[in-house]
Specification:
The chain is mainly alpha-helical. The chain is built from 13 helices and no strands. The N terminus is likely disordered.
Length: about 230
């Protein structure tokens, strides 16, 4: 799954672009439509979540950058050009989990801690450890500011859907539609919900997609693709 790089961490331009999420949706629209489960949650919100602007907390930034560097390290049995690698995905995950968990514990309540907790949720979900992923996303949803919380709620909704808790997932996405943030727009929340209605309540899916699909944005293109999956009226 995509994550912010250390170079992008320092980029104001990146923050401006990703804050709009348009480029992200253009690049990943096929995956958004195709895949279910927690992967879609990450796809939907990565574009908005890793908006990170420079501020005075340089030490916490550096710790976060170090944790991200671990997460970006490739898995390979043989290193090339002196590049550091991990021998297995499990070894990499354990190192990344420790780095993010230490940061979250040390700087609890900070923006960096919220990002670290979200990373932990992503790693745990990649491992199929949905119980711990749910805890991580819940912590961000309940303790983070409204923007970070909104992103965690999208991920949390996907966990609920994948676990058969449709009503809980729907409730979170309906709340986001009523109270969008700069990271999760009303349209993005509606698309996420519509995807889970397809095959379950096609009329409701169509209702959610109708106001979005006639636009010209990347989000509208996703809505058009999802609408094409619905049976003819």
């Amino acid at each position: 799954m995509a994550r912010i790089t250390r170079k992008e961490l320092k980029s104001d331009k990146f923050a401006q672009e990703v804050g709009l999420t348009v480029t992200f949706f253009e690049e990943h629209q096929k995956d958004v439509v195709r895949y279910g489960g927690i992967g879609v949650a990450v796809i939907l919100l990565v574009g908005g979540f890793f908006v990170y602007q420079r501020h005075e907390h340089a030490a916490r930034q550096e710790e976060l950058a170090l944790a991200i560097r671990i997460q970006e390290t490739p898995v390979a049995t043989v290193a090339t050009n002196g590049q550091h690698t991990f021998p297995t995905q499990d070894a990499k995950d354990q190192a990344a989990i420790k780095a993010f968990a230490d940061l979250e514990s040390k700087h609890s309540g900070s923006d960096e801690a919220q990002i670290a907790e979200y990373y932990l949720g992503c790693i745990h979900s990649d491992q199929g450890n949905m119980a711990d992923a749910e805890k991580n996303f819940l912590n961000v949803a309940n303790r983070g500011d409204k923007n970070y919380a909104s992103l965690a709620k999208v991920a949390l909704a996907e966990i609920y859907f994948s676990g058969g808790r449709f009503d809980q997932g729907e409730k979170l996405l309906r709340e986001l539609m009523e109270h969008p943030t700069i990271f999760v727009s009303k349209d993005q929340a509606a698309i996420s919900l519509a995807k889970h209605y397809i095959g379950r309540n096609d009329a409701e899916a169509r209702k959610l997609l109708a106001p979005i699909k006639d636009g010209k944005s990347a989000v509208a293109t996703i809505a058009q693709t999802l609408t094409s999956q619905l049976p003819p009226q």
